[in-house]
């Protein structure tokens, strides 16, 4: 794999760390700014909505820039946002830093996915995307726990200084390792035209609905472990680390199988999410079983990412940057929808296992959308595994790296 993929993955690592580390710092932030923890929690939701809005918007504004130039600018913006956050004199200033960082997040992951796919042969695109997204998975295993520990020991500002430093190293890697390209030949209006296709919207819906079960489960896994399974609070980080290890393992596996047969992989993985969510229901009262089921859940969840991202790139081959950015927004829409629905069931008194029922239902719904999408492919005479698009890419129909 090209070294440029490692630079892209390091940027994703910094982004994944800052996205989730804030949850572990909420008590310190609330105390420092003399506000409540629910108010401090707006730093999480504000970031998520910033990604949803910022991914397509920033990508559209940079549509005429070479992709390497856009990536450099986005990572520089990411560093600046974390300097603002580290120096924030007020809660409002910190929120501004978070929103600026979220705008860089969505566009970087979207454009970076396109660049990663163009760095390798067409038949290896999903694996390249998986390697880049491994940075996000590694953030859950290493970045978030270490960032939380650092913030608790040295103050929350130290976490933001550290993430800024990671961004500087990633920025240098992008500058030095990502190949330079010319200006994009595809105009913004041509990129937007891809969204007139129902197939593109189905692929985006597949991402939003199919990914929603993941955060629906992960958000409420701590009370599930303590209130239902019987783990102590101190054991929760250990179990969460195993979940993160599962996610780290799953991405490359999903990428390999998606390269071989994209839509069959999508069907299997979304169906697998429903199965492992149901398995968690059966395992919830047994400590050994729930750890095994959560680790398997992490593997399957992470394996869906390259498949879903590649599917969108295939469905909008003429608009790779905008489609990829829109898919990042769809992932984050799933991040919002899954926990919201799961929270409603808990609030209605159905207990801490109810998010697992929600996850099963959402995964089945995502699978239904995927099956509909595949059926429309067959009816229109398009191969269900994206072979037509990959063939076009190998003949030069897809822009080369850096564009």
Overview of the molecule:
It is found in: Cell membrane. This is MFS transporter. It is a multi-pass membrane protein. Helix 6 packs antiparallel against helix 11. By secondary structure, the chain is mostly helical. The chain has a single domain, classed as Growth Hormone, Chain: A. The chain has 16 helices and no strands.
- Rg estimate, integer Å: 20 Å
Task: Please trace the helix and strand order, writing H or E for each element.
Answer: HHHHHHHHHHHHHHHH
Low-confidence stretches: 387-403
CATH class: Mainly Alpha
Class derived from helix and strand content: mainly alpha
* Tally of distinct domains: 1
Strand content: under 5%
Please give the largest β-sheet. none
The span between the termini is: 20 Å
Output the number of helix runs.
16
CATH topological fold name = Growth Hormone, Chain: A
- The CATH architecture assignment turns out to be Up-down Bundle
Task: Describe what is shown at a glance.
The protein is an all-alpha fold and 403 residues long. The chain is built from 16 helices and no strands. The two termini are 20 Å apart.
What key attributes describe this structure?
single chain; mainly alpha; Growth Hormone, Chain: A; disordered C terminus; MFS_dom; MFS; membrane
SSE map:
Layout: H1 3-32, H2 37-40, H3 42-61, H4 67-86, H5 91-118, H6 125-154, H7 156-177, H8 188-193, H9 198-218, H10 221-229, H11 236-260, H12 262-283, H13 287-315, H14 320-347, H15 354-380, H16 387-394
Helix pairs in contact: 1-3, 1-5, 1-6, 1-7, 3-5, 3-14, 4-5, 4-7, 5-6, 5-14, 6-7, 6-11, 6-13, 9-13, 9-14, 9-15, 11-12, 11-13, 12-13, 12-15, 13-14, 14-15
């Amino acid at each position: 794999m090209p070294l440029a993929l490692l630079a892209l993955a390091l940027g994703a690592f910094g982004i994944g760390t800052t996205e989730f580390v804030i949850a572990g710092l909420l008590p310190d932030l609330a105390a420092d700014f003399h506000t409540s923890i629910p108010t401090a929690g707006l730093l999480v939701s504000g970031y998520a909505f910033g990604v949803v809005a910022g991914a397509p918007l920033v990508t559209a504004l940079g549509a005429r820039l070479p992709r390497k130039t856009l990536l450099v600018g986005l990572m520089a913006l990411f560093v600046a946002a974390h300097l603002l956050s580290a120096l924030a004199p007020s809660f409002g200033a910190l929120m501004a830093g978070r929103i600026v960082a979220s705008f860089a997040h969505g566009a970087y992951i979207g454009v970076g996915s396109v660049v990663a796919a163009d760095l390798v042969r067409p038949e290896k695109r999903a694996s390249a995307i998986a390697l880049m997204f491994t940075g996000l998975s590694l953030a859950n295993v290493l970045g978030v726990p270490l960032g939380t520990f650092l913030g608790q020991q040295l103050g929350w500002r130290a976490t933001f200084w550290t993430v800024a430093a990671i961004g500087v190293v990633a920025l240098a890697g992008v500058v030095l390792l990502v190949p330079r390209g010319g200006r994009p030949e595809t105009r913004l209006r041509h990129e937007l035209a891809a969204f007139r296709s129902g197939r593109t919207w189905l692929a985006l819906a597949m991402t939003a609905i199919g990914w929603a079960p993941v955060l629906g489960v992960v958000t409420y896994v701590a009370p599930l472990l303590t209130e239902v399974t019987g783990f102590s609070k101190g054991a929760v980080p250990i179990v969460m680390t195993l979940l993160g290890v599962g996610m780290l393992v799953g991405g490359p596996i999903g990428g390999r199988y998606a390269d071989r047969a994209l839509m069959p992989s999508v069907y299997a993985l979304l169906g697998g999410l429903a199965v492992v969510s149901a398995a968690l229901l059966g395992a919830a009262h047994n400590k050994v079983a729930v750890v095994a089921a959560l680790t398997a859940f992490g593997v399957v969840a992470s394996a869906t990412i390259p498949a879903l991202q590649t599917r969108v790139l295939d469905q909008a081959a003429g608009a790779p940057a905008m489609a990829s950015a829109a898919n990042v927004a769809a992932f984050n829409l799933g991040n919002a929808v899954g926990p919201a629905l799961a929270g409603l069931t808990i609030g209605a008194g159905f207990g801490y296992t109810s998010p697992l029922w929600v996850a099963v239902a959402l995964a089945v719904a995502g699978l239904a959308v995927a099956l509909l999408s595949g059926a429309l492919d067959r009816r229109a005479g398009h191969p269900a595994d994206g072979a037509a698009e990959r063939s076009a890419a190998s003949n030069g129909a897809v822009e080369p790296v850096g564009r």
